[in-house]
Amino acid sequence: MVCSACDTYVSLTAKHCARCDRCVENFDHHCKWLNTCIGKCNYTWFCALLAVTGACQTVQFVFALRLTIRDDRNAQFGVLVVQTVGSGLVILGVSHLILLHCWLKCKGLTTFEWIRARRERKSQVKSASIRREAELKSQALKDKGTFDSFEQSLKLNDTSIVPLTQSLELTREKPASDS
Ligand SMILES: [Zn+2]
Ligand SMILES: [Zn+2]
Question: Active site includes 3?
Answer without folding.
Answer: no
